[in-house]
Amino acid sequence: MEQKWPQDIWLVRHGQSSGNVARELAEASAGHHIDIVERDVDVPLSELGVRQSEALASWFAALPPAQRPNVVLHSPYLRAAETAKLLMGGLDRDELLAVQSDERLREKEFGILDRLTTHGIAHHYPELYEQRQHVGKFYFRPPGGESWCDVILRLRSVMDTLEREYCRERVLIVAHQVTVNCFRYLFERLDEASILDYDRALDVPNCSVTSYRFDPTMGKRGDLALHLVNFVAPLEDTGTPVTTSKDLPAAPKA
């Protein structure tokens, strides 16, 4: 039997960012706009985000050498790139086969809704707000932005890369909340209702780990088996606060 998948895949959401903090403050005060100076791609980690990344780096470093990641793929967004760099601090650079920034792993694009809170969307774009509630986050595409389906389409090509270039390797992917959920949709062959149920139940914590391990007994050629989901023990064990800060305005949960 020929194995087509990596041996291990870890999906990590970036550490808390300054944008996460600004969004929470704006939402809490019922404001319309999020006070972020940088482009979304340039938003850095917060001080807590750095601590979260360092705590997770120590967990990866404590794994046996043959079980640590040897391929690192990350979103080009600064908060994800900074998280990946900190995580690699616990890895042997000489053992890494590849470290790649991949634009396909970028954050979901918000289009004209960028930097707006839920209140801001309802105030400035009431028709879009109503459409967003009716259609739901899976299919709703704001002007100039993306739906979850759009993100899934670009991640399908990442899956092809994983099969073609990193078969049998141990791959760490550092990206964003929607990216992690959309990978789950693909790896676990979920439908719209299932992935939105997961999203409704719990936001993806910053620096949490969702992982898959190749199981040769699954299917005819083996498949990826879910191993960890939103794993935050490395943060909890070090007393590092766990955050579930949103990257985008809260969408309807129905």
What does this structure look like?
The protein has 254 residues and is an alpha/beta fold. The protein has one domain: Phosphoglycerate mutase-like (Rossmann fold, 3-Layer(aba) Sandwich), CATH 3.40.50.1240. 39% of the residues lie in helices and 14% in strands. The chain has nine helices and six strands, in the order βααβαβαααβααββα.
Number of E strands: 6
Strand arrangement in the largest pleated sheet: 3-2-4-1-5-6
Strand content: 5-15%
CATH class: Alpha Beta
How is the main sheet built?
Answer: 6 strands, mixed
> Gyration radius, to the nearest Å?
18 Å
- CATH homologous superfamily (4th level) name: Phosphoglycerate mutase-like
Describe, in short, the structure shown.
The protein is an alpha/beta fold and 254 residues long. The chain has nine helices and six strands.
Key descriptive features of the protein:
6 strands, 14% strand, 254 residues, Rossmann fold, 39% helix, 6-stranded mixed beta sheet, disordered C terminus, single chain, globular, alpha/beta
What's the SSE blueprint?
Blueprint: E1 8-13, H1 18-28, H2 47-62, E2 71-74, H3 78-88, E3 98-101, H4 118-124, H5 126-135, H6 148-165, E4 170-175, H7 177-187, H8 192-201, E5 209-215, E6 223-231, H9 233-237
Parallel strand pairs: 1-4, 2-3, 2-4
Antiparallel strand pairs: 1-5, 5-6
Helix pairs in contact: 2-3, 4-5, 6-7, 7-8
